[in-house]
Amino acid sequence: MAKRVMSLIAALGAVIATFVFLPASTASAAACAPAWNASSVYVGGGSASYNGHNWSAKWWTQNERPGTADVWADQGTCGSGGTEEPNPSGFVVSESQFNQMFPSRNGFYTYSGLTAALSAYPGFAKTGSDTVKKQEAAAFLANVSHETGGLVHIVEQNTANYPHYCDTSQSYGCPAGQAAYYGRGPIQLSWNFNYKAAGDALGIDLLRNPWQVEQNAAVAWKTGLWYWNTQSGPGTMTPHNAIVNGAGFGETIRSINGSIECNGGNPAQVQSRIDKYKAFVQILGTTPGSNLSC
Q1: CATH number of the domain that residue 100 is part of
Q2: What gap in Å lies between CA 34 and CA 59, rounded to an integer?
Q3: Cα distance between residue 283 and residue 277, in whole Å
Q4: Range of the domain at 53
Q5: Shortest CA distance to 47 belongs to which of 68, 76, 81?
Q6: DSSP secondary-structure letter at 155?
Q7: Residues 208 and 103 occupy one common structural domain
Q8: What range(s) does the Chitin-binding type-3 domain occupy (predicted)?
Q9: Residues 134 and 236 in one domain
Q10: Alpha carbons 107 and 226: distance in angstroms, whole number
Q11: Which residue has better confidence, 62 or 291?
């Protein structure tokens, strides 16, 4: 009998030991509150998420960034617990960071559409150090945000411009119609010759069917990446090269809008782009580098 009791005690001890030494389960992080928006008003107790954390407003606030103003109390990590989930695409911007950058975006501009477009230009945001990769992604998305009002506009808003974008001197003309080549997509692709060049590079017939850019998110993102990686515009280098070769964010502005904004053309617009870039590199946890203006 004593032997049986001792055996039972030993067995029970083994079970207890199993429970004692099992690793503790990790509690899942809290769900993220709606992303902080600089233009929104928050009253005391109001919640917002920013940079992987939930924050609670202590009193009335507007345009005071969580983590940089005493008005916000840190409520701890949220979503993935402060560690971004790996992206199958390898993109340096996670979906939660993308949503944080564009809290009011049009549903057309999907994160999945963007990551699906990355294969067209595999060097984008994957060249150089981790800092440079994040700077390029932030630079692209900051310019995109400026061009589209925060990824709100899919097409050019001034319809009076639409008939102007047909260069009839081109041998291929404007087969989709004279008013068919208006600005579309994240960098507002316009003109028949740009639709042809982008389509040829991407293997998509955009000359005859330019509407694909406003109907297919991946195609829209690809046209933006086409410009960013291959076109110098009114500048002297592509925006991609401006970042990876250290010329700075200011040169990306020049490549997109040249003297219309740079060299005193419109300093307020330049500053708007810079402010957005600074906000985005902060979300990605890196620094903006030098030569921000043009």
Answers
A1: 1.10.530.10
A2: 18
A3: 10
A4: 28-83
A5: 76
A6: B
A7: no
A8: 33-75
A9: yes
A10: 22
A11: 291
CA dihedral 183, 101, 221, 132 (to 10 degrees): 120
Q: What is the pLDDT of residues 39-53, one digit of tens each?
A: 688 878 888 877 678
Q: Are residues 143 and 33 in the same domain?
A: no
What single-letter DSSP state applies at residue 39?
A: T
In this prediction, residues 3-12 reach a mean pLDDT of 40
**Residues 217, 212: Cα–Cα separation, whole Å:** 9
| Cβ–Cβ under 8 Å, residues 136 and 124 | yes
- pLDDT tens, position by position, 221-272: 999 999 999 999 999 999 999 999 999 999 999 999 999 999 999 999 999 9
3-state secondary structure of 62: strand
Reported as a single tens digit per residue, the pLDDT across 130-175 is 999 999 999 999 999 999 999 999 999 999 999 999 999 999 999 9
- Which DSSP helix (H) or strand (E) runs through 48? strand 47-50
Active site residue 261: no
Which amino acid type is present at position 101? Answer: M
Same-domain pairing of 115 and 143: yes
Catalytic residue among 136, 147, 251, 261: 147
Count of structural domains, the chain: 3
**Domain containing 171 — which CATH number?**
3.30.20.10
Residue 148 and residue 170 in one domain = no
Q: Which two tokens stand for residue 34?
A: 């709606």
Supply the DSSP string of 117-148, one letter for each residue. HGGGSTTTT-SSSHHHHHHHHHHHHHHHHHHH
Q: Quick one: 276 and 253 in the same domain?
A: yes
Task: Return the SS3 of 294.
Answer: coil
Structural domain contains residue 174:
yes
Q: Is residue 147 part of a domain?
A: yes
The enclosing domain of 51 has a CATH number of 2.10.10.20
Please report where in the chains the tokens 């990306």 appear, as a residue. Answer: 252
